[in-house]
Amino acid sequence: MASSSSSALSPARSGVPDHSAALLRKAEAALISAIEIYNKPAFAYREETFAILALNAWELLFKAKLLAIKSNDCECLYIPTTKTLASKEPKQYKLTRSGNKMTIGIDACIVQLDKVGIATPEAVKKNLEAVTEIRDNAVHFFNASPQLSKQVLEIGMACVRNFIELGKLWLNLDLSGYSLYLMPIGFLPSASAATTVTLSRDEGNIVTYLAALVAQNRDAATTDYHVALDVKVSLKRASVDPNATVAITGNPNDPSVLRVHLSEESIRDQFPWDYDTLTAKLRERYSDFLQNKKYHDARRKLAKNSGYMRTRYLDPAKTNTSRMDFFNPNIVSEFDKIYTLKQQPTVPAVPPSPSPASA
To answer: Degrees (nearest 5) of the Cα angle 277, 166, 271?
Structure first.
């Protein structure tokens, strides 16, 4: 679902060249369109259309980053002819059927960024490879099976999250005004139905290929970027007043709220980071981070929010026993407001062409 306080796209951002800012706004629009199409309650070409629009959003994001570090010189996006590459003659570029200069695709963008020291995370590359495979094989499945739909959902969730993280890191793209997530409710049948469906040979090949891509990155150490994200939805009959308030409270006898039991396993799933892990993550993420009073004060203040920190005691019945604090990764979004994200390395400014064509 995509919603925002304003229907307009984000305005041009200061410090970003005009062409780069324009492509960044188009990338934002493409991502929002992909999510809105996916979340329609009845749409026969859901998975395929999402893949097409999501890849378009990523290509535009990569091109916006290239333009930003190349001083808005659009030539960095054009594909030179083979003859030009082998000679010292003025550059000539491949043309489209309409006579416009042909621009590079996602893979070439990744290579160009890597040449100037801006590496695309491996998990992002694998995720884009999976989305590309879904798009390229769209002709093989007119109605995606439950199993393939579930794979597309999990890969799509990671695709959206990766875009938000990298867009913010590279170009300060702020999508906090939107609620960006893919909605599985109503789209996926039960788990048993998803595993017992009969697949065609072509669709079976796609399912196997996507599963292999996800497995390759399952043990990766990074938690910032993903190939796929597990989606678990549990629907149960309500046994209490559906209008009752659900809240976390320190008073177990408070009659105004429901009592919610969290198992040890579910708590660790929601709060996987201990103090050392949190500190290491922040040190890697920010250029001005120091493990000092400023950090400790901010952490203690955020820890008062039970959604960010949970404490485990050696004896749960005695709060004066040994304790250990665990943190939810979402706490990082609050530290983003306090510290400065590390900037990607850039190359020296290249003077723009006298009259660059529009990208």
So the answer is: 30
Give me the pLDDT at residue 186, please: 44
CA distances from 354 to 21, 73, 127, 170, 357 (A): 20, 9, 38, 27, 10
Q: Would you list the DSSP string of 175-240?
A: -TTB------TTT---HHHHHHPPPPHHHHHHHHHHHHHHHHTTT-S-SS--S------------S
Q: Residue 122 has what DSSP assignment?
A: H
Q: Please answer whether residues 149 and 187 qualify as being in contact, where contact means their C-beta atoms are separated by less than 8 angstroms.
A: yes
How far apart are the C-alpha atoms of 188 and 238, rounded to whole Å?
A: 21
Of residues 28, 26, 52, 49, the one with CA closest to residue 38: 49
Tens of pLDDT, residue by residue over 171-227, are 989 887 777 666 654 444 444 444 444 556 776 777 787 888 788 776 565 567 888
Nearest to 228, CA basis, from 136, 130, 145: 130
Specify the amino acid at residue 48: E
Q: What is the pLDDT of residue 236?
A: 56
Alpha carbon 46 to its chain centroid, in Å, reads: 19
Which pair of tokens denotes residue 331? 């706490």
In total, the chain counts a number of residues equal to: 359
- H helices within the chain, ranges in order? 18-38, 46-69, 82-85, 106-115, 122-136, 146-171, 191-196, 201-216, 264-270, 275-285, 293-303, 332-335
Measured between its terminal Cα atoms, the distance across the chain in Å is 30
d(Cα 49, Cα 33) in Å, to the nearest integer?
Answer: 10
> Is pLDDT at 278 greater than 90 in this prediction?
yes
